[in-house]
Amino acid sequence: VQAAPQQVAEDKFVFDLPDYENINHVVVFMLGTIPFPDGMGGSVYFCYPDQSGMAVWQLLGFVTNEKPSAIFKISGLKSGKGSQHPFGAMNLPQTPTVAQIGISVELLENLAQQTPVASAAVSSVDSFTEFTQKMLDNFYNFASSFAVTQAQMTPNPSEAFIPANVVLKW
C-alpha cells in the first residue's frame, strides 16, 4: 500500500509503480482521512514508458467520496496508445521499470464525461455469477477427462453413464 503520493501540482498526485510489468491489477482507494472537496473527485491515470522512454498516459477511471475505491486491470494496457491527460507537459521522471498512477482532482461533471480505456475495467459480472460459471467449467473439464468412446466402454450394470452433450445442454 502506497499512502504517500508525490504532489506534482496543486491538484495532481502520482504514485510510483515499480516492477509494473509484473502487475495485473491496481486497486486505488481513499484512506478516509481526507475527503475530496464538495463536487470534486479524482481521475485515475496509468502512465508507463514506451519503447523510446516517453510517458504514455491512459485514463483508467475515477474515485469519488461516494465511490472511494476501484480496481483497474493494467496488464493489457502496456501496449496501447495514450490519451489526453491533465499531466500534460509536466516533466515527470520515467525509468524503464517504473510506471506511475496519476490522480487528477477534477469536477464531478468532468469525470462523468471522460471515457476510460475499455480494457482497464474489471469484470462487471457479480462474483457469485463468475464463481458459478468457473465452477461449472471446471466440472465439465473434470468430467470430460474421463470420457471414453462407445467402443472403449465395458458394460457394467452398476454404473450410470451420462452423455457429455447432456451436461453441455444443461
UniProtKB/TrEMBL annotation:
GO function term, MF aspect, one: nuclear import signal receptor activity
GO BP terms, alphabetized: cellular response to heat; protein import into nucleus
This protein's GO CC annotations: cytosol; nucleus
Domain Hikeshi-like N-terminal stretches: 1-120
Annotated localization: Cytoplasm; Cytoplasm, Cytosol; Nucleus
UniProt keyword annotations, A-Z: Cytoplasm, Nucleus, Protein transport, Transport
Family in the record: Belongs to the OPI10 family.
Protein role: Acts as a specific nuclear import carrier for HSP70 proteins following heat-shock stress: acts by mediating the nucleoporin-dependent translocation of ATP-bound HSP70 proteins into the nucleus. HSP70 proteins import is required to protect cells from heat shock damages. Does not translocate ADP-bound HSP70 proteins into the nucleus.
Assembly description: Forms an asymmetric homodimer; required for binding and nuclear import of HSP70 proteins. Interacts with ATP-bound HSP70 proteins.
Name this polypeptide is given: Protein Hikeshi
Natural source organism: Erpornis zantholeuca
